[in-house]
Every structure is written in C-alpha cells, then in structure tokens.
Amino acid sequence: MIRKFAFKSMMAEKFRCVCTIIAMVLTALLFSTLFTTAVGLNSANDYYTLKQLGTKVHFIIKDWDADLDGSVDKIRENELVSSAGCRKFLGYAVNEELNYNVEFSYMDEANAENDFYTPTAGRLPEAVNEIAVDTTTLEALGAEKKIGAPITLDISVGDETETETFILSGWFGINEAYPNKIGQILASREYCDVWSSRHQDGPLFGSVDVGVYLKDEYDIEGQAESIVSSAGLSLENSEIRVNPGYNVSTEAFSAESVSVIVCGALIIILIGYLIINNIFYISARKDAKQFGRLKTIGMSNKHLAAFVRYQAMYMMSAAIPLGIVGGYFMGRAILPSILRHTAYDTVANDAVISGGEIVGILAFSALFVIVTTLVSIDGPIRMIKRLSPIESTRIELKGYKKKRRSNDGSKARKFAGYNIMRNKKSFALLLVSISLPVLLVIVSYDALRSFDMDKYLSSMLVTDYTFSTADYYKNDYVDFDGNISTLDSSIIDEIQNSGYVEDGSVIYADLATDYADISGMTITEDENCALDIYGASDFIFDKSMLIEDEVDMTAFNNGTELSKAAGWIKMVRYTPEQVSMQSEIPSP
C-alpha cells in the first residue's frame, strides 16, 4: 500500500518529480562520464604501451622450430589460451619509393589481430600472389587503393633481391605508436611454401615466432611453460619471451598519489550527495504539512521512511539508465579529444575500452548513484521523523526569531537576501553545491591543459628535427661491406644556409669497431667488445643528457674529458691521436 501511495503522490507533483529526475540524471551523467574518461585514459596508457611494443600477446616463442600449423593448433586448444598465432619473417620491401623499413611477413589471422594488423578493408591474403599492405606504404608505393590492384615489390632476403608482382587483397593502418616508422606487408600461407623452396630458413629471414594471448595475466611465465609442456613440444632452439607491457610494477602508490586519488573521489561523492540531498531536503520541507497529516492518521516513522525511499527508487529507476548510458557515450565522445592533448594521441581513434570495462563502468556508475541517493535521503528522513503533526504546520517559520528594522523601506534585493539567509544551514549547503561542480571543472581543465608537450620533450630531445639518409631511418647504419651511410656535405651546407636553422650539430661516428686501445683504457680483442665512437659539437650536449653533475666542457672539447650521456650510451670525445683501432675514425 505504501508503495502505491508513494507512486501516486509522486505523480501528483509531476513538475517537482521531473526536476528531481533531471537532477538524478545529471548526477548519474557526471559519474558515468568521469568513470568512462578515467577508465579510458588508463586503458589508453596500457594500449599505447602494447602498440609501442608491437603486440598485445602475453608471451612469444621466438625461433619456433616445430611444425608451423599442427603445433600451433595444439597450443590454441589449451584451456589457458585465448588465442595464438604465428608469424614468419620473409624479408624487407626495398622499393626506391620506400625511405623507411617495410617488413615482408606471413601472419595468420590471430597473429594479425594481436599485432594490430587486422584489415580495415578487404581481407588477409589467401592466394599465393595476394598481399595485404598498410595504408602508409600503399601510398608511398603509389599503388591504387583498390582490391585486386597490382603491386610490384622488390623483396630483399639477405644479400639477394627479388622483384615480384602481387595483387592487393586488403589494407590496414600503420602502427603509429612505434618509436620508428615501420611498414608492414603480409603475404599468404601458400607464399611461405614458395619462399621456402627458394631460400633456407635462417636466424632472421625465415624465422618463425608464435604469439600467445592468455585468458588472464597471472604468472605469465609459469603459464607459458605449462602450455608448451602440455602440447608435448620441445623448445631446444627456441626461447619464451614475456611481453614487458604486462610486467606491471608492484610498487605501492606514493602518499601524494593516494592523497590526490582519495581527495578526488571524496569531491565527486560530495557533489552527488549535495545535489540529491538538497532536492529531497527541500521536498521534505515543502511536504511537511502532508507528512504531519499522515502521522495524524496513524502512519509511523517507519512507514514515512519507506514512503520517501520508494519515491527515491521510482525516480532512480528512470534516471539511472538515462544518466549512465548517456554519460558513457559522452565519455566516449570526449575521450579522443582528451587523448589528442596527451602523449597517447596515436591511439586516440582506437577502441581502447573493452566490453568488460564497459559493463564495469555502467555497473559501478549505477551503484555509485544508488548508494549516493540512499545516503542523501537519510537526512530528510531524519527530519521527517522528528516532526510532530502540530510542528509540521509551522515548519516554515521555525528558527526565524530575529526581528529586522529598516529605515529605507522595502526593497526586492533586501527581501532576497533575507530569504536566503533565513536558514543558514540550507544556504551553506546550497553554496557548496554550486561551488564544487565549478571547482571540479576548473581542476579538470587545468589538469588537462597543464601538459606542455614542448617542455616534456625538451627533457629528452635537444633538436626539433634530424636529417640523415634513408638507410639511417631503416636502422641500416652499416651495409654488408662495413661502410657507414653518410650525408653529403653539400646537403649539410644547404640545410645550414636555408635561413630556418638557428643552431645545430653534425654527428660523426665510427660504429661497431671490433676493439680499441685508448690511453688509460684497453679493450682486448679476446673480450669481444664492440665500441661505437661519436663526435659532436657543444650544441648536442644538453645538460639533461649528462649524468655527471659537473662536466668541464673545455676539457671535453680539448679531448681530455669523458662525458656519459643519460641512459645506456656513453659518449666519448678523443682526438684521433689518442685512439688506435682497426678502422679509421672520421675526424670531427
């Protein structure tokens, strides 16, 4: 009976009911949007890391020496495995139009999906003369973006180069998260057999890797060994490598990070609480006379509490679905814009939120609104319980005993001021309710705009641009004859005299020297230690690159000082007279 009475009473005040539902919808919208954005940013971070590594599989079996098809099927059948695929590296596409590395490989469907190469148009190659190409390489080759279009490739396998014509079966986007630009061309399984009849499998060309995506991330290495063992496979010449993208740090959050997270959560909870609490508090005060009459006819405090809760549940049943679904789509809509202002801009257009995360967002948002609403109506319920039937008829006058005198007559602005200050508690709650959402918006905007890309990059980069040969950007620093690919001096002069260059430096290098004998330090040939020696001007040695607190640049320029760059590379400057080795060093 109370449930029906609560519904009819709510319908009798349709305008107030609609206003309350709108407030609940906006609260649910706020929570759902924030949760969607927060989950999206966290997922974008993980997704970006995996794309940088080139795969989302949990572990890879390198140098697979078992059967390419049957053995992989045994791994797929394991209950621990979600998907497994293989890749065979066949060579490089070295057409003149390509000034970056383009890999020529075979991938099955599972591996293509796990390595982010699922075709966005067409399909993976099936016939022996079919290929799928990334759109950037397709454009660089000047090929027609049309299924069935012919494409001629120069394929380099070791020191051999073959020219073949293929038919385009599909295309996909290039992986822009890679630190270096790398194109990808996929061949068919049938072409692998043709390739094997022409070439012999080696440590690079013809090597096979098997990637395995697990159902969970717990003890990846242990699961990998169990899967391989269960399949009855021997990995004498193979190696299991765990994807470092899943090596989540176990270090605890810092006190500062925990404080920020807790404060942010409390502010969000407080905003939702105040919005809903104010609505029900005002409603309870307005209906005080009605509650007094209900007490007069015999309704207990327990019945009145149930009456208010039923009304809240009816309103929530309409507001929560609209709010959380609308907030989810709003969060999905603004997430790409947020990502484009961060370091994750290369994954801004990717679907970074999974289906399981969507369900979690909707469920958690709904739970958050329900709990906030139930807590928010507790105050109005306590006020209703304290009312007596007689007191309820004059509740609007309660507590306003102060008399006011005025010498300048009655004015609207004074009446407005007196009215809002009649109940200082309500005024304080209203003021906080209005201020906190504004504070949340300002803090969110400042946090978003606080990321300065130029300042961030200045800690890692010294230059705005680098110029070199195409081989440099293909990581082909040294050819098969041991010659280093270098820029012609006329090109360097042209760049320096272009009028756009403020400052710069030329890097000189001698790479992978077998051994060197330097004054004060001797590396013997037996130790098998390669040495890369670079020469550069002062411009390249930014303070952020130096490990040592104090570096005497004068001594360094004179060739008597050793400078260690941040990271793994040691930068050395010696005069040619100080160094004797098997090959000559270009003088800086």
Characterization of the model:
This protein is α+β, with helices and mostly antiparallel strands and 588 residues long. 44% of the residues lie in helices and 16% in strands. The chain has helices spanning 2-12, 14-53, 70-76, 109-114, 135-140, 189-198, 220-230, 255-286, 288-296, 301-339, 355-376, 378-386, 412-420, 424-449, 453-458, 470-473, 489-496, 553-557, and strands at residues 59-62, 81-93, 101-107, 121-122, 130-134, 150-157, 160-172, 182-187, 208-214, 239-242, 508-513, 516-518, 521-522, 531-535, 562-564, 570-572, 579-581. Helix 2 (14-53) runs parallel beside helix 10. The protein is elongated. The N and C termini lie far apart (94 Å). Mean pLDDT is 77; it is low at 249-253, 515-520 and 563-588.
Query: What is the first-to-last residue Cα distance?
Result: 94 Å
Q: Over the alpha carbons, how many angstroms does the gyration radius reach?
A: 35 Å
Total E-strand runs: 17
In the predicted model, the low-confidence regions spanning at least 5 consecutive residues are 249-253, 515-520, 563-588
Q: Judging from the principal axes of the Cα atoms, what is the shape?
A: elongated
